[in-house]
Amino acid sequence: RALRPVAAALLNGGSAGCVLRSGPGEGRSTALRALSQLLADADDRLRVVTLRWPPNAKTTPELRSVLDGRLRGEQGVLLVDDVQYADEASAAELARLGANPRPALAGMVLTSPSGVVLPGALDMFPSVELAGLDDDQLRVVLGPRATVAPDPVVRQIRTLCRRNPLVLGEVAALLTPDQLSGRAPLPPRPPLGPESRRVLARSVPALPRPTRDLLLHLALADGDLTLALSASGAGLDALSPAEHAGLVQVHAGRCRWNPPLLCDAVLQRTATADLVRASRALESAGRDTAGTLRRALLAVTTAVGPASPDLHDAVVTLAAAGRLAEAYEAAVAAIPRAPEAALRARFRTSSAELAWLGGYPDHAMDLLTRREPDEPEDESAHVLRWAVDGTRTEWPEFVAAVVEEPSLAARLTGTALVAGWDTVPPGQLAELALGLRRLERRTPAAGAAGVTALARVATGCSQLSAEEQDALQALAWWVQPADALHPKFWPPPLLPIFLGAEVRYERQFSSLLATPFARSAAISRSILLEKRAYLRWATGRWSEALHDALAGAELARRAGQPALRERLQQAAALVHASRGDEPGCVQARGPDLAWLAELSAGKPDAALDGLAELHRGLPPSPHDLVLRRLSTVDLVTAAVRCQRADLVASVVTEFETWVEAGAAPWARMDLARCRAMLAGADAGRWYEQALGLAAEVGRPAATARTQLEYGAWLRRGKHKREARVQLRAAEVAFTALGATEWARRAEAGLRATGEAAPHVVGDGTLTAQERRIAELAAQGLNNKQIAGELALSHRTVGYHLHKVFTKMRITSRAQLARTLDALP
């Protein structure tokens, strides 16, 4: 569309031309070719002369001579690509031609990247900005094969091709139907068609041989100039012709390609023998400094001949470094080249695992299904099938079958146990764990202590020795570097909370989330986010927990893992339920946590029904056993509020026996709270005992609820001053957590003690912005949410809220609504 008025002006002879501008790789060269065709179609007598700067002519007279030779006395148009590289003299000549076109020259069109300052002489030419392709135009460029591609895949292809229209026009024909439909991963580099390779690298063949050789080494060395010079044996002067041609630019020891896809064109037009030779030279030159990753990249880039176990090691290295696309491509390409069936099966399973981790479960299953008759299906393939089912639908009952595998390795143990955590009775799962004695040989980090710890936690033990804690945590993600490819699910999200080990596990999961592997593997990242969400919920970082849960749910949705998404929504529901947000709990699909939402919202009778059902009969699985232990204090709270303490006597007795046999500090705190709620006049000492454990437990919500209960008990006993201390602390803590319902309950208790209502300083005048911020805060929004609503920084919101609190003489958000109502 942008070219039509340009072509019309040139054809009518009423324009000296213009400068076409666009972002990197957004089609300036393609636009010139399209303009040339447009002009030729409109007037076949018009000659079009196209030059890519720098042209063969080096001086102004030569430029005139070239132009005269091309036009041959006929009417013509001059098109100049990449004019930003023109020297001052040539720019002046172009400007002169534009200002005083000869009879044979109808005008000219130049191209330059957006934002680049051209020589001053070219200021006379107006700029025409080329807009990037929108989705509809992109589909037209991609051609009819792209009709099956969903919008996200189309956008991924656009990014892969750096928005280059020429490459986009050829790439769809080179992708598989599964890649176009989004069932299989796209390649890490765009496959270039013959025209793309020719156009992108059209200046390369004319370069001296040492320069071409240096460019190949630069492409393989990812732009590292020092390493490329060392490997190629060339001097720095060998780069000059490429710089003069505008193909590369050097910045801080690294080379940038122009256009960016030139690097891919150089690699894809080079003969295999030359790739191998250059890669060996790079490996030799960079062995001491380049590191394992570069050698892995070289290994997969130049892999020819039979595939070897060393190539699989390179695949693992790339995966661990977050280069999943390259690792997947290498593993898939190696399958037919593996000389032995066992190695072929290994590459097939690894490629399927990488496809699944990248968010392509259907393709992963297809790869496993296409296994050749002579390929053995090892335990990794078994577990991958179960893992895909577990994240798409639900965990199948496969624990016993896995444990019977004689070659079961430690990396598979967590997956097997998580699958049984929700489905197998505690005693049976403990027996299965004890049957894993082979772990002592496979994983010394776990050893006998790990086996014992597995069996103990499966039957409901929360107090482990330091050795057992370390051994159990060694199974929490991966032990060996090679495990980066394999599915890992241990521990179940509630288990670290049950063990009272939230801090150490969150530290581990946060560290893993920061790795390149987790950043690139959608499934691994979503699993880690689910685990960390629960830990942050337990330690009172509810907004962060909600963010983790929602981010993980979105990743799982994009990856086509509905069961995993459902579990992450359950984690989000936990935060809503804890805050007393019943609509939010339902929206996050948390019916199993309805009792917690009802208790938080002040509906103990409804909560009692759900809790009583949870605690009825023998626990069907370790998950249910853990959930019972963690919710015992909630059951007692609901029963006492409903004046049905008789319903929980046996539950508390059983809980007391379990705690006194050895339990984590949180359980001792919960037991003290249970005793306090049932003790009547003697409750004070139990509340003091519970609060004495609060710092060790480190769970702000549990501490605030204890203070609320203690404050209410003190108020009923007419100890109003002491009650205010506890209730005020509870209100502050609940407000910080965003638990609005709980904070209002604490505030109501404070009012019942006779604490004066907050009053306004002076006339209580707030600025319009302060008032709006205060109103949003009173509705329960946190600072970041308010900042997003008003397009402010969260620091600015905090500053204004501090001023509001000072003016109104209040100390918490829970007091805002009542105080705002008192304002004029």
Could you explain the architecture of this structure?
The protein has 47 helices and seven strands. It has a five-stranded parallel sheet with strand order 2-3-4-1-5, sandwiched between helices. A two-stranded antiparallel ribbon has the order 6-7. Helix 1 (3-11) crosses helix 2 (28-42). It is globular and about 110 Å long. 49% of the residues are buried.
Q: Would you report the number of β strands?
A: 7
What is the alpha-carbon Rg in Å? Answer: 34 Å
* Main sheet: strands, sense, barrel: 5 strands, parallel
Give the averaged pLDDT, no decimals.
82
Sheet/helix structural class? mainly alpha
Query: What does the overall shape look like?
Result: globular
Strands side by side in the biggest sheet = 2-3-4-1-5
Strand fraction equals: under 5%
Poorly predicted runs: 398-409, 757-763
Please, how many helices? 47
Q: Helix coverage percent of residues? A: 55-70%
Q: How would you briefly describe this protein structure?
A:
The protein is mostly helical and 824 residues long. The chain is built from 47 helices and seven strands.
What is this structure's SSE topology?
Layout: H1 3-11, E1 17-22, H2 28-42, E2 47-52, H3 60-71, E3 76-81, H4 88-99, E4 105-113, E5 127-129, H5 135-142, H6 151-160, H7 165-171, H8 177-181, H9 194-200, H10 209-220, H11 225-232, H12 240-244, E6 248-251, E7 254-257, H13 262-268, H14 272-286, H15 291-301, H16 309-320, H17 324-334, H18 341-357, H19 361-369, H20 379-392, H21 399-403, H22 410-421, H23 426-434, H24 439-442, H25 447-458, H26 466-473, H27 495-499, H28 502-513, H29 516-520, H30 522-538, H31 542-558, H32 562-579, H33 582-587, H34 594-600, H35 604-614, H36 622-641, H37 649-660, H38 665-679, H39 683-692, H40 694-697, H41 700-716, H42 720-737, H43 740-752, H44 768-778, H45 783-790, H46 794-808, H47 816-821
Parallel strand pairs: 1-4, 1-5, 2-3, 3-4
Antiparallel strand pairs: 6-7
Helix pairs in contact: 1-2, 9-13, 10-11, 10-13, 10-14, 11-14, 14-15, 15-16, 16-17, 17-18, 18-19, 18-20, 19-20, 20-22, 23-25, 25-26, 28-30, 30-31, 30-32, 31-32, 32-34, 34-35, 35-36, 36-38, 37-38, 38-39, 39-41, 41-42, 41-43, 42-43, 44-46, 45-46
